Please model this.
Amino acid sequence: MPRTVLAALAATLLVSAGGACAATPHYAPSAAAAGTYYVSPGGDDSADGSSPGKAWRSLARADQVKLRPGDKLLLQGGARFPGTVTVGADEAGEAGRPVVIGSYGTGRARIDSADSPGVSVHNTAGVDIRDLTLRGRGAAAGKDAGVNLYSDRRSDGRREHVSVSGVDVSGFRVGIAVGATEDDNGFKDVSVRRTHLHDNRDAGLLTYGADFDPARRAYAHENVDIEDVEAYENHGDPAAVDRHTGDGIILGGVRGATLRNSSAHDNGGRSATHATAGPVGLWAYDSTRVLIEHSSSYRNHTRSTVDGSGFGFDSNVSDSKIQYNVSYENDGSGYYVFSRNRDGTHTGNTIRYNISTDDARKLPLHGALTVYGKRIQDLAVYQNTVVMSHSPGGRGPAVLLRDGNSGVSIRNNILVTEGDPLVSADAALSTDQVVLQGNVYHTTKGEWAVKWGDRTYSDLAAWRAGTGQERVGGKATGAVADPCFAGGALPGLRTPEDAGLVVPGCPRDGLDLHALFGTDAGGVDYFGRDAGDPPAVGAVEP
Model:
């Protein structure tokens, strides 16, 4: 699962972003010109563009106008336009009076871009992009982002307010990219809503900044809000062995981000077989205060021997949460936490009230819920439901743990396998490194097993006695019990709406996480119902 920041991708996007606007001579309209400009295939580039009846014909003509705060550039709905819309450093710029780029009339206008972004925003902000279809020349050939927000102006702060809504993007290297060259010169208050990102090559959506400096812990972008975004069939690059491709949504270089009510599915199917890192559905890296919630990630793939996961917190993520999500039928883990560094920048994260069923279909040895890497600190994993039926790829645990971490707690989870180990730890981890307490363990057939370093325990009592796990204050915790799921012993989800199949018919009270450990138990379960005090074990109240 180790990965590098998308250096090759970033370099390509930076070059194209910086050049998309610079070569176009913008000039200011006369004082009498209107603030709304229209473009139609039936228009005339010698007209003034001030009304649908006086529309311009081409994006090249529209691109000659300097867009001032509050101006609108509207393309005829249902029509196609070759080229790119660019907004440069001397345009827009006011968060309270954004430039609007969108459609008029019936339906969405479509921009067909051959060798450039569909919409490029360079070294400015105060821009709303809405109700457009953007098509690149094909994911295999694309080198740009469909919507490319990029800042390389140094040391003058973040540019504020860009919104993207009602947009459909395909055929590019990345659907939407938000990038910057410095820690503090990116974008602030970026929102992406009601958008479909599909059939792009490397990713549906990507934010990125400069290489992370653990000493400074600075971030290029601030306040990114993603809602109702679907990233699907972004298949990857079979020739890209040096990086991961085929991702859904990636949040990198961000301080403060929310990703909710979104989905990533059926991505990564053509990623490189020999890549050293693979794609993931929804994940973050080099970021802090990220919230991923009420989203789904399923049938994501990897063609290599790594990744293919549903959700993840990768290197240098802190003070962030993954909660109230559902994951199923991914090639890799449903949920993972990974750090490549020992610098203490992966700390204070939470994974709670999530569901995983039938994950790790190709790579079962990675487990359905995976915690590994170097010096992951203060990670809380609680109130989740993990169901791991036997994978076509072989045997694999519900939970995989590796050495080198500290302060990892795994509490009040339901863990179910079909005869495979419930927990697998590569080393005999101490309770200072990881502690499991108050969990319910169930094996539907075969022997109950926990692998702990070189030993395999065949019952809970022996594991408890041999390791100190499943104890609180000297008292035994945890249980071996059938949750009696509504969907049967091994409920398999086929749609996110099938989450009701993991409602337990035989509930067990969980530990009082707040009273015992000062942990915020969340208050509500996966479905938003009162979680009880204390809550029942697992993501869903009975």
